[in-house]
Design a protein that fits this description.
By secondary structure, this protein is of the alpha+beta class. Helices cover about 15% and strands about 45% of the residues. The protein is globular, with a radius of gyration of 32 Å.
């Protein structure tokens, strides 16, 4: 028995070894497979990391190229696709945030496996410093940071005495305090017509100048205002047949001072010689009148604000309702161009462009490009430029004709329409002011139930309301508009001559 037990032991041990060997080989195979998978996985991860690093390099190169392009010709920096590079597709998306700031996003895409697209994006903002210095407060630092889907009044203030007709507003920051400089016409003309309003607390605006006056009297009244980049001087268009250009020292907003001498526009006719519109750009003031028997557009050198020098003028036979000026490189040559919103006729455009040649004395001023003539004979009443886009506002005459346009100005000899819109105006009303920042266009209109409007212009070919609340109903007719630090400032024709608009986050729509 013992011998038989002993004799069967080797057979048992031999079978156990075979099973153990098979198990060992299986474990070894699994281990080797895992090692191989890890090895291949590490190789894949390394490959993905290398591809991603290469894509980051290419995206950064796109941004560096964009920076170089911006230095050479700022307006040439637009959305475009690049030639493919091996497995990579490269592009840049450019959004104009303000007249002097763009955001460029470099995008690199590729595909490693079927159905597994990869993407790298880098973004940067580019500032046209020269334009920022030339435009000053008209080149807001930052675009709106809200959705602007529920516009509402933050605060408002009436002029002294009440019921005066507010005519324009320009907001600026001086010594860390935010002000809205407001102009008016008045009856009798001995009343005040210029105010500095402290709007740092937008819900509780207050006059900066102590009472009982709170403002100053410059004469028969003012039609328009623009503040220089330093926030020291306000240039105003006077509703006077003489001394149409006036200069106000606002370096101390609590004590604004009218500087003398005021300047009379030369070569204007007897009808409508009053200053009507005004724009400051790079130590120059551009002032327009309504249609007169003489010259309606004038340029002044205000390098010395105490001594404005008339540098040139031109007769255009139209009301100069609004002005926007900028330098633009065309064919390698930098030109100073004035874009005007003017009264219409059957044979002339509502957007007129003038070339201001400063190499001669007096400056040579001549028409440039084709301008833009919209359907109908509605006057051009307001204008704003952002990148290669012109935003045009018009009056209402016929319901079939739009009042708000986005225009492609990449070729000034062939300006074309992106989109247009009827914004709900009625007879004898108009869009009298436009401020654009980021993806929003803010409109001031003279329709009392639609005095303020905000539209989404992110897609220039498809203007859309920001919400069902994008048209704000209040009782005054708007006369002017400005945007600064996520607030919109509106001047109005009657009570509450200055109104501050904000995006109310909890307002019911």
């Amino acid at each position: 028995m013992k011998a038989g037990s002993i004799g069967s032991a080797p057979i048992y041990n031999e079978g156990s070894s075979t099973i153990e060997l098979i198990i060992s080989f299986s474990v070894l195979i699994l281990t080797m497979t895992a090692v191989l998978l890890i090895a291949f996985g590490n190789q894949s991860n390394t490959l993905y990391a290398d591809l991603n690093q290469e894509a980051l390099y290419k995206a950064n190169r796109v941004l560096e190229d964009t920076r170089a392009d911006a230095k050479g010709n700022y307006l040439s920096v637009v959305t475009e696709s690049y030639s493919p590079e091996t497995i990579y597709s490269l592009s840049r998306e450019v959004i104009d945030l303000t007249p002097c700031k763009k955001r460029a996003t470099a995008r690199v895409t590729w595909q490693t496996d079927v159905g597994r697209p990869q993407k790298v994006e880098l973004a940067n903002e580019f500032v046209n410093i020269a334009e920022a210095l030339a435009l000053g407060g008209d080149c807001a630092d930052s675009p709106p940071n809200d959705d602007w889907d529920r516009p509402d009044s933050a605060g408002y203030i009436d002029l002294i005495p009440g019921g005066q007709e507010g005519t324009d507003v320009d907001a600026a920051v001086i010594n860390g305090t935010r002000y809205a400089f407001t102009t008016s016409k008045k009856n009798p003309p001995t009343e005040l017509d210029f105010w500095a309003v402290d709007v740092t607390d937008s819900e509780n605006p207050v006059f900066a100048m102590p009472g009982p006056d709170y403002g100053i009297n410059t004469g028969p009244g003012l039609n328009a205002v623009d503040v220089d980049p330093d926030g020291k001087i306000a240039y105003v268009a006077s509703d006077n047949i003489n001394e149409q250009l006036q200069v106000i020292d606002i370096s101390d907003p609590t004590n604004p001072q009218l500087l003398l001498p005021s300047v009379t526009l030369p070569g204007v006719g007897n009808s409508y010689p009053q200053g009507w519109s005004i724009f400051y750009y790079d130590h120059h003031v551009f002032i327009g009148t309504r249609e007169t028997a003489g010259n309606e557009f004038h340029v002044f050198d205000v390098t010395n604000p105490l001594l404005p020098i008339h540098r040139g003028s031109i007769e255009i036979n139209h009301n100069v309702n609004d002005i926007f000026v900028r330098d633009q490189t065309i064919g390698g040559v930098t030109k100073r161009l004035a874009f005007l919103a003017v009264s219409s006729s059957a044979i002339s455009p509502e957007v007129m462009i003038l070339n201001i040649d400063m190499s001669t004395l007096p400056y040579t001023i001549s028409p440039f490009g084709s301008g833009f003539d919209a359907p109908g004979e509605e006057d051009g009443t307001s204008i704003f430029l952002l990148g290669n886009t012109i935003f045009l506002g018009r009056e209402y005459l016929a319901s079939s004709n739009p009042q708000f346009y986005t225009l492609d100005a990449s070729d000034l000899f062939n300006i074309d329409e992106f989109d247009s819109l009827n914004v709900g105006l009625t007879n004898n009303t108009a869009i009298v002011g436009i401020a654009v920042s980021g993806k929003f266009a803010f409109l001031a209109t003279t329709r009392q139930t639609a005095g303020f409007q905000v539209w989404n212009i992110e897609d220039l070919t498809n203007i859309k309301p920001t919400s069902a609340c994008n048209i704000y109903n209040y009782s005054e007719k708007a006369t002017g508009i400005d945007y600064l630090d996520n607030r919109v400032y509106i001047s109005n024709e009657s009570n509450d001559a200055l109104r501050i608009i904000w995006d109310h986050p909890t307002l019911a729509c």
